[in-house]
Amino acid sequence: MSGCQKAARPLTRGLQNIQQSCFPPMAMRSFTSTTRANSEAAAAVAKTVPDLDPETVTNPKQERALMRSGVKLIGSRRRRAALRTSNNIPFEQLPYQCFQEARKVLAADREEKLKAIETERLRIANVMARDPSTYKGGEQQKQSQLINMQRYLERLKILADINDPIIKKRFEDGQGDMNKPIYRYLADKKWRSYQRLLILQRINQLNIVPDVLPHFEPTADVRLAFSRRNVQPGEFIDSRVSEIPARLNVQVYDKGERLVSVVVIDSDVPVLENDNFTSRCHFLAANIPLSPTETSVPLIKASKDTQLIHPWLPPFAQKGTPYHRYSVFVLQQEPGQTLDVNALKEKVARENFSLRSFVDKFGVEPIGASVFRSIWDEGTIGVMQRHNIEGWDVEFKRKRIESLKPKQKPRGWEARHASTKYRALWR
After folding, report:
1. Crossing angle of helices 165-172 and 181-193, rounded to 10°
2. Which domain holds residue 156?
3. Shared domain check, 228 and 372
4. Which DSSP string do the residues of 146-158 spell out, in sequence order?
5. Are residues 187 and 295 both part of a single domain?
6. pTM for this structure?
7. Which DSSP state fits 95?
């Protein structure tokens, strides 16, 4: 190799390195008629959502996805995990000898209760066929005896199923039939253990009793919601949320269908003339059917011809006033009683509405209630203007009360330094 070649070799290698650094292999491509891969439109890949079983799902994210889709979870997460890892053996066929022997004892006890039920039904039929003149008290004594026998019959129906594990399992899973006495009994017991105590506490704390009614003992569970917003008893609700009519879920625990009236009252309407407060009716409807299985009462769907007396007036609290208490009462009408809506529109006014007078005059019985509160917020003006409610530009201020004590002459240090020469000390 000549000396020139040896001298040119390092120069050639340097030029090759410069060329590779300036033009990397990824940046160089040959001529082609197709488009580049990174410029092609990406195809939308549809995500496959797996089918989730509400009885076996245990992942919290999957649970939330099911609840958002409107599917109610069954049982606790621990129970669902146990079902997921088991062999799906029916509950009645669990291979435990002690369990099966206990079920035999419960089945024998249930057979005895069923025989007692048949006997009691036969006794009731005999009493109904008996002439009232054979009783000392006549028809009144006969009806009293029938009521007691019917009450005892309902108790036997409950005792026949109270120890059945299948019944308790269905109730805990939310699959109970409220037409059956046992499920109504279990639901009533669960409601009285917490929810009833809560609503009684709120009613007493907010002085709904005795401001609205002198006495009240709820026997039905009333749940309040605005659209998808569930309202807890006594909660503050934004005026824009309560602008739309509320939706009630009323669960009764005695059998049969009945007609109820629904009333919404504001107990804190200020009266400037008397420097006092009065009440206003924000909604009133009657003749609404209700049963243990038909629990939904959307106020917006009240019939104008046969049910609606006063349409929904959005709750509002004028600026400067304290919070307003809004009570929602469900009033059960007498059996077979249908109130005349047209007559009530003329007799019952919105302003100065008194629930006590309404209950006494029309013979209705309060069975359930809920309560929420409203206060001035940034959306109150808009709500009042949209519904043509007067007073949106009025602001209430507290009146300064002058002291009733007579003015006294200065004494002590103040009297000695009252002269103008002590002006510098007055401050």
Report:
1. 60
2. 97-191
3. yes
4. HHHHHHHHHHHHH
5. no
6. 0.74
7. S
